[in-house]
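Batch 3, record 17
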Amino acid sequence: MARSCDRRPAQDRGPSALALPVAPKGRGAEYAQVVASELPALYKLGIVGAGQVARMTHQAAVKLGFTPRLLAEDLHDSAALAAPDAVFSHPDALAAFAESCEVITFEHERLDLGLLQRLEDDGLVIRPGTRTIRAAFDKMHQRRVLLNRGFPVPVFSEVRGPDDLLDFAGIYGWPLVLKSVRSGTPDDRGAWVVENAQEALRVMSEQAGRQLMVEEYLAIVKELVLVLARRPGGSARCYPLVELSLDEGVIREIRCPAAVGHQVATQARELSLRLADELDSVGILAVELFLTTEGLVVNELAARPHNAGHGTIEGAPTSQFENHVRAVLDLPLGPTWATAPAIVTINVMGGLENIDPMVNLPEALSVEGAQIHLYGKQPRPGRKLGHVTAVGDDIAQARALARRAESALLGRRAW
Ligand code: ADP
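Prediction for the assembled complex:
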């Protein structure tokens, strides 16, 4: 499937040229086949996936004058709702989709790596490339690569069955952390802290069918994320290190800057840049780190814009989404410094009451200074429906503002 050389140079097209018929509900697969044969010659940028990350990346690309094509899985995906041109996914759709775009990038890691590798070998431009995607996609592979290159990672092992787990527990004791080797959807949980064999076996049976691994339980002092953007060829820019608060393994709040000393911030930056070079990453690379009493440990990598970087929309001269677009299109990166002393982002999560935050938008917009982002998703308990960012002179001030807006969106009394 070599890229034909008589294609016109990429001219990004306006929405009118991209308008496609709407797929009948539940008929995405057939539709994809029809659409695949009717694709216009070339788009500058294609985004595989159409969740909130694609939605915000799409918005950043539009700002620069591009109209990316999206490979959505469903008509109701967050970005598909907001984009004039969304092709619905089908196992056969990715190759045709990639052929229609000058560059393709990704908002998730649920990908057929073999197919991507073939496309890359055929000369299609995939950014980040399969070397990076493989490391982000498969946590076992990621741990092995990092370990071999001398990066600090938790002790880990593959779990093929209960014996592997119990052997590991015999050496490292309880609690332990069970993890899914492959990432799921943004709303899927991928890690379980288990206190004993009974709990571990329960998680294993609940997650039957998912490949699992186990790792030592670390006493985490802080959870940190370093988001960086890197162009082909290696020029890179780091955003300030941020600190997370989580609830049941799900990010609730992101604070910038992280409350760590200069030394930890510098180490995080140097380690992440080295890692990006090792993987030859292009686009945004988010490096999730644990600060332990023994120093920094790499938890996870995401080769795409990350929840920890959502605050860069208001808190940096160039958002992570825009820098992702710039990087994958090999355009100059924009500055990444913090534009305020404190930036706090709070995720708006669906609660048991299933309140749609859109209903409370007027109240939330009355919280002056808070920036509201809603993803157009149907409310469901535990689902990320949006986020709120506030900037301020200090973390307490920014957090108070963001919390007031979040409470208003969820119909709760302000704190
Ligand atoms: P996910 O794929 O769900 O994001 P993570 O690997 O990021 O999974 O883990 C989710 C959370 O679980 C982490 O943010 C951390 O709070 C906790 N966790 C993960 N690994 C460990 C570990 N080795 N020791 C202690 N806690 C851990």
